[in-house]
Design a protein that fits this description.
mainly alpha; 0% strand
C-alpha cells in the first residue's frame, strides 16, 4: 500500500504534501481524502493521480481557486472534506 500512496503523491505539487495545522489531530496525524479512497486501491491510484495532475501549478488555477472549488463541491454534497 505504501508504494501505491507514493505513486499517487508523485503527481501532487509539493505544497499539497504538508497538512495544514488546523487539520492535524492532537497526535500529529492528519485525516486524508486519499486514505478515504483506499478501500479500492486501483480506483484510488487512478482517481487521486488524476486529481494530482489537475492541481498542477503550471495550469491556470491557483491553489486558492482549487480550494474554493473543492469547498463548494463538498458543501453541495454535504461532505466533510
Amino acid at each position: 500500500m505504501k508504494k501505491l500512496y507514493e505513486q499517487v503523491y508523485a503527481h501532487y505539487p509539493p505544497e499539497y504534501m504538508e497538512s495544514l495545522p488546523m487539520f492535524r489531530n492532537p497526535d500529529g496525524s492528519a485525516e486524508s481524502v486519499v486514505a478515504a479512497h483506499s478501500l479500492i486501491p486501483q480506483a484510488m491510484l487512478h482517481f487521486m493521480s488524476g486529481f494530482g495532475v489537475l492541481i498542477n501549478p503550471r495550469l491556470p488555477l491557483s491553489r486558492r481557486q482549487h480550494e474554493m472549488i473543492a469547498t463548494l463541491v463538498s458543501a453541495l454534497n454535504s461532505c466533510v472534506y
